[in-house]
Amino acid sequence: MSKCDGVERFYESIEEWKDKSHLWVLEPRAIFFEIGYKLGANFVTSDDFIGNTKERVLELLNNEKINEDFLVCGMVNVVTETLERIIYTQGSSIVNNEESIRRSSEVQQKYNFDEESREEAVDAFERVLTRLKRTDYYQHAQINLDNWKEIVSRNFSRSKRNEWEDQQAIEAFGKYKI
User: Fold this and answer.
1) Is the dihedral of CA 165, 170, 175, 178 positive or negative?
2) What predicted TM-score, i.e. pTM, was given to this entire model?
3) Interatomic CA distance for residues 122 and 151, integer angstroms
4) What does DSSP assign to residue 47?
5) Which ranges in the chain belong to alpha helices (H)?
6) How many Cβ atoms are within 10 Å of 42's Cβ, its own excluded?
7) Mind listing the pLDDT tens digit for each residue in 165-177?
8) N or C: which end of the chain has fewer CB within 10 A?
9) In this model, does residue 45 exceed pLDDT 80?
10) What is the DSSP string of 102-145?
11) Contact (CB, 8 A) for 17 and 145
12) Which superkingdom, per the lineage (predicted)?
Protein backbone atom coordinates (compact mmCIF):
# COMPACT_ATOMS: atom_id res chain seq x y z
CA MET A 1 0.00 0.00 0.00
CA SER A 2 1.59 3.23 -1.01
CA LYS A 3 0.99 6.37 0.98
CA CYS A 4 -2.69 7.37 0.95
CA ASP A 5 -4.01 4.09 -0.49
CA GLY A 6 -5.85 3.48 2.77
CA VAL A 7 -7.42 6.92 2.58
CA GLU A 8 -8.48 6.28 -1.01
CA ARG A 9 -9.90 2.92 0.03
CA PHE A 10 -11.85 4.69 2.78
CA TYR A 11 -13.37 7.18 0.33
CA GLU A 12 -14.13 4.37 -2.13
CA SER A 13 -15.81 2.47 0.71
CA ILE A 14 -17.96 5.49 1.53
CA GLU A 15 -18.99 5.69 -2.14
CA GLU A 16 -19.83 1.96 -2.13
CA TRP A 17 -21.85 2.41 1.05
CA LYS A 18 -23.72 5.36 -0.50
CA ASP A 19 -24.57 3.19 -3.52
CA LYS A 20 -25.77 0.28 -1.36
CA SER A 21 -27.72 2.32 1.18
CA HIS A 22 -30.60 3.89 -0.70
CA LEU A 23 -32.64 4.65 2.40
CA TRP A 24 -30.78 7.37 4.29
CA VAL A 25 -31.09 7.98 7.99
CA LEU A 26 -28.01 10.21 7.85
CA GLU A 27 -26.50 12.01 4.89
CA PRO A 28 -22.86 11.15 4.15
CA ARG A 29 -22.08 14.88 4.42
CA ALA A 30 -23.00 14.70 8.10
CA ILE A 31 -20.56 11.84 8.64
CA PHE A 32 -17.78 13.83 6.97
CA PHE A 33 -18.64 16.83 9.11
CA GLU A 34 -18.18 14.66 12.20
CA ILE A 35 -14.89 13.18 10.96
CA GLY A 36 -13.60 16.55 9.83
CA TYR A 37 -14.55 18.20 13.09
CA LYS A 38 -12.65 15.55 15.05
CA LEU A 39 -9.60 15.97 12.80
CA GLY A 40 -9.63 19.78 12.96
CA ALA A 41 -10.76 20.44 9.39
CA ASN A 42 -11.53 24.04 8.45
CA PHE A 43 -15.26 24.42 7.78
CA VAL A 44 -15.30 28.19 8.31
CA THR A 45 -14.79 29.15 4.66
CA SER A 46 -16.78 26.37 2.98
CA ASP A 47 -19.48 23.79 3.55
CA ASP A 48 -17.63 21.24 1.40
CA PHE A 49 -17.35 18.79 4.28
CA ILE A 50 -16.05 15.94 2.14
CA GLY A 51 -13.37 18.01 0.38
CA ASN A 52 -12.27 19.82 3.54
CA THR A 53 -12.06 16.56 5.47
CA LYS A 54 -10.00 14.90 2.74
CA GLU A 55 -7.70 17.94 2.62
CA ARG A 56 -7.20 17.73 6.39
CA VAL A 57 -6.52 13.98 6.25
CA LEU A 58 -3.85 14.46 3.58
CA GLU A 59 -2.33 17.30 5.61
CA LEU A 60 -2.12 15.05 8.68
CA LEU A 61 -0.51 12.27 6.64
CA ASN A 62 1.96 14.38 4.70
CA ASN A 63 2.83 17.23 7.06
CA GLU A 64 2.20 15.81 10.51
CA LYS A 65 3.37 12.28 9.61
CA ILE A 66 0.36 10.61 11.27
CA ASN A 67 0.31 6.86 10.61
CA GLU A 68 -2.14 6.17 7.79
CA ASP A 69 -3.46 2.91 9.26
CA PHE A 70 -4.15 4.69 12.54
CA LEU A 71 -5.95 7.54 10.79
CA VAL A 72 -8.01 5.31 8.49
CA CYS A 73 -9.03 3.00 11.34
CA GLY A 74 -10.13 6.06 13.30
CA MET A 75 -12.26 7.31 10.42
CA VAL A 76 -13.82 3.87 9.92
CA ASN A 77 -14.64 3.77 13.64
CA VAL A 78 -16.23 7.24 13.55
CA VAL A 79 -18.57 6.12 10.76
CA THR A 80 -19.46 2.91 12.59
CA GLU A 81 -20.05 4.68 15.92
CA THR A 82 -22.13 7.40 14.26
CA LEU A 83 -24.39 4.86 12.55
CA GLU A 84 -24.71 2.85 15.78
CA ARG A 85 -25.52 6.01 17.77
CA ILE A 86 -28.40 6.78 15.38
CA ILE A 87 -29.96 3.43 16.24
CA TYR A 88 -29.30 3.54 19.99
CA THR A 89 -30.49 7.11 20.50
CA GLN A 90 -33.66 7.09 18.42
CA GLY A 91 -35.93 7.24 21.46
CA SER A 92 -34.06 10.03 23.21
CA SER A 93 -33.86 11.95 19.91
CA ILE A 94 -37.65 11.83 19.65
CA VAL A 95 -38.02 13.10 23.22
CA ASN A 96 -35.43 15.87 22.69
CA ASN A 97 -37.09 17.09 19.49
CA GLU A 98 -40.54 17.08 21.11
CA GLU A 99 -39.14 19.02 24.06
CA SER A 100 -37.45 21.54 21.74
CA ILE A 101 -40.75 22.16 19.96
CA ARG A 102 -42.60 22.47 23.26
CA ARG A 103 -40.09 24.98 24.65
CA SER A 104 -39.61 27.01 21.45
CA SER A 105 -41.67 30.00 22.66
CA GLU A 106 -39.81 30.06 25.98
CA VAL A 107 -36.43 29.96 24.20
CA GLN A 108 -37.59 32.66 21.76
CA GLN A 109 -38.41 35.00 24.64
CA LYS A 110 -35.31 34.19 26.68
CA TYR A 111 -32.87 34.75 23.80
CA ASN A 112 -34.92 37.39 22.00
CA PHE A 113 -35.33 35.49 18.71
CA ASP A 114 -37.78 36.83 16.17
CA GLU A 115 -40.91 34.83 15.33
CA GLU A 116 -39.65 33.83 11.89
CA SER A 117 -36.49 32.26 13.35
CA ARG A 118 -38.55 30.38 15.94
CA GLU A 119 -40.89 29.05 13.24
CA GLU A 120 -37.94 27.92 11.09
CA ALA A 121 -36.46 26.08 14.07
CA VAL A 122 -39.79 24.44 14.91
CA ASP A 123 -40.22 23.38 11.28
CA ALA A 124 -36.76 21.80 11.31
CA PHE A 125 -37.48 19.96 14.58
CA GLU A 126 -40.82 18.75 13.21
CA ARG A 127 -39.22 17.41 10.01
CA VAL A 128 -36.65 15.49 12.06
CA LEU A 129 -39.34 14.26 14.43
CA THR A 130 -41.49 13.01 11.55
CA ARG A 131 -38.52 11.10 10.14
CA LEU A 132 -37.58 9.65 13.55
CA LYS A 133 -41.13 8.43 14.17
CA ARG A 134 -41.54 6.67 10.83
CA THR A 135 -42.08 2.97 11.36
CA ASP A 136 -39.29 2.05 8.95
CA TYR A 137 -36.68 4.45 10.42
CA TYR A 138 -35.07 1.83 12.67
CA GLN A 139 -35.03 -0.73 9.85
CA HIS A 140 -33.36 1.74 7.47
CA ALA A 141 -30.81 2.69 10.12
CA GLN A 142 -29.99 -0.98 10.67
CA ILE A 143 -29.62 -1.59 6.92
CA ASN A 144 -27.24 1.40 6.66
CA LEU A 145 -25.17 0.01 9.53
CA ASP A 146 -25.18 -3.56 8.18
CA ASN A 147 -24.08 -2.35 4.74
CA TRP A 148 -21.25 -0.36 6.30
CA LYS A 149 -20.07 -3.27 8.47
CA GLU A 150 -20.03 -5.61 5.46
CA ILE A 151 -17.88 -3.14 3.52
CA VAL A 152 -15.56 -2.64 6.50
CA SER A 153 -15.13 -6.38 6.99
CA ARG A 154 -14.06 -6.73 3.37
CA ASN A 155 -11.92 -3.60 2.98
CA PHE A 156 -10.43 -3.01 6.43
CA SER A 157 -9.96 -6.44 8.00
CA ARG A 158 -6.84 -7.09 10.05
CA SER A 159 -5.45 -9.33 7.31
CA LYS A 160 -6.06 -6.62 4.68
CA ARG A 161 -4.34 -4.05 6.90
CA ASN A 162 -1.41 -6.44 7.42
CA GLU A 163 -1.05 -6.67 3.63
CA TRP A 164 -0.90 -2.87 3.45
CA GLU A 165 1.74 -2.69 6.17
CA ASP A 166 3.85 -5.35 4.43
CA GLN A 167 3.59 -3.46 1.14
CA GLN A 168 4.58 -0.21 2.84
CA ALA A 169 7.61 -1.90 4.38
CA ILE A 170 8.66 -3.31 0.99
CA GLU A 171 8.28 0.12 -0.64
CA ALA A 172 10.20 1.83 2.17
CA PHE A 173 12.97 -0.79 2.03
CA GLY A 174 13.18 -0.39 -1.77
CA LYS A 175 14.09 3.28 -1.34
CA TYR A 176 17.36 2.34 0.35
CA LYS A 177 20.14 0.93 -1.76
CA ILE A 178 22.33 -1.60 -0.08
Assistant:
1) positive
2) 0.78
3) 37
4) -
5) 5-20, 28-39, 49-62, 68-88, 90-102, 104-111, 115-133, 137-155, 158-174
6) 12
7) 787 778 777 777 6
8) C
9) no
10) HTHHHHHHHHT--HHHHHHHHHHHHHHHHHHHSTTHHHHHHHHH
11) no
12) Bacteria
pLDDT of the residue at 177 = 64
Band of pLDDT at residue 1, cut at 50, 70 and 90: very low
The radius of gyration computed from the CA coordinates of the chain, to the nearest angstrom, equals 21
Q: Are 52 and 66 in contact (CB under 8 A)?
A: no
Sequence-separated (6 or more) residues with CB below 8 Å from residue 71: 6, 7, 57, 60, 61
Let me know the angle formed at the C-alpha of 164 by 154 and 144, rounded to the nearest 5 degrees. 25
